[in-house]
């Protein structure tokens, strides 16, 4: 089976493209989990990568789970514990790898992001939508629950009330509705989606890589820790930051009234 995740480097920005049109960029029934884990590991170890843009090839961002592949569960011939482990060792590996990735990730949503496809966007830090994008937490409509962490991810992006509405009805939001509820931060024309996403990624990537990674970790920790714990972690990270060459360069550049030249 051909890889679903195509990777391309643009300076400090890595572009990941879901490219399996025959499955509408589905995330199950293929090697998507393994490929995301590998891609996240590569980016995490490469300190020269300062931002990632995730998008889809063709008219669809991701259709989520491969419903045709779910036919194998018909007839109750596969034990419940086997199916549970398929999720644990399959699609659930994606949020475990992508959500805590310490490099900023932008989802450039080019078309429908359905079910696990929507949840995939919620694993990212920033979402930009094409005018043709649709978003649906549609698991209920095919008689299943969000098995990929969507019940944890979606409320953190749109709030519990809106997440409940989306999950209980399965109805799709268009790009403007997604903008109104904060699911995406901007909506652009289809031809401007990647230029906008890349321009934003480059604005991020000009900043010191070590500090970017620590900043993202603080934001993630802030979602689950107390203020006191976060302040203590922030003090530790700040002590590290003050000893970096990029901080020293930034201070010199400020005093000398010139743009900084980060390593």
Key terms:
263 residues; globular; 11 helices; 3-stranded mixed beta sheet; single chain; 2-enoyl-CoA Hydratase, Chain A, domain 1; alpha/beta; 2 domains; Lyase 2-enoyl-coa Hydratase, Chain  A, domain 2; 44% helix; 6-stranded mixed beta sheet; 9 strands
Concise description?
With 263 residues, this protein is α/β, with parallel strands linked by helices. It has helices at residues 32-45, 80-88, 93-98, 116-122, 150-158, 160-169, 175-180, 193-205, 209-222, 227-242, 245-256; strands spanning 5-10, 13-18, 51-56, 105-109, 113-114, 126-130, 134-136, 172-174, 186-188. It has two domains: 5-205, 2-enoyl-CoA Hydratase, Chain A, domain 1, CATH 3.90.226.10; 209-256, Lyase 2-enoyl-coa Hydratase, Chain  A, domain 2, CATH 1.10.12.
List the helices and strands and how they pair.
Elements lengths: L4 E6 L2 E6 L13 H14 L5 E6 L23 H9 L4 H6 L6 E5 L3 E2 L1 H7 L3 E5 L3 E3 L13 H9 L1 H10 L2 E3 H6 L5 E3 L4 H13 L3 H14 L4 H16 L2 H12 L7
Parallel strand pairs: 2-3, 3-4, 4-6, 5-7, 6-9
Antiparallel strand pairs: 1-2, 7-8
Helix pairs in contact: 4-5, 5-6, 9-10
């Amino acid at each position: 089976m051909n890889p679903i995740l195509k990777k391309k480097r643009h300076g400090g920005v890595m572009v990941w493209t879901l490219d399996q049109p025959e499955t509408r960029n589905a995330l199950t029934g293929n090697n998507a989990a393994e490929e995301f884990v590998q891609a996240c590991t590569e980016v995490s170890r490469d300190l020269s990568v300062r931002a990632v843009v995730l998008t889809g090839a063709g008219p669809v961002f991701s259709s989520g789970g491969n419903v045709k592949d779910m036919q194998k569960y018909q007839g109750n011939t596969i034990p419940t514990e086997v199916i549970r482990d398929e999720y644990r060792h399959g699609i659930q590996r994606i949020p475990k790898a992508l959500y805590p990735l310490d490099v900023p990730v932008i989802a450039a949503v080019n078309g429908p992001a359905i079910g696990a496809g929507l949840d995939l966007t919620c694993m990212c830090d920033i979402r930009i939508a094409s005018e043709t994008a649709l978003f649906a937490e549609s698991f209920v409509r095919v008689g299943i629950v969000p098995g990929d962490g969507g019940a944890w991810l979606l409320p953190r992006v749109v709030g519990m009330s809106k997440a409940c509405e989306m999950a209980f009805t399965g109805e799709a939001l268009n790009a403007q509705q997604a903008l109104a509820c904060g699911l995406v931060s901007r909506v652009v024309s289809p031809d401007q989606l990647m230029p906008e996403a890349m321009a934003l990624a480059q604005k991020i990537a000009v900043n010191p890589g070590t500090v970017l990674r620590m900043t993202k970790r603080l934001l993630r920790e802030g979602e689950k820790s107390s203020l006191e714990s976060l302040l203590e972690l922030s003090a530790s990270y700040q002590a590290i930051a003050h000893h970096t060459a990029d901080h020293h360069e930034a201070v010199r550049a400020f005093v000398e009234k010139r743009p900084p030249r980060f390593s």
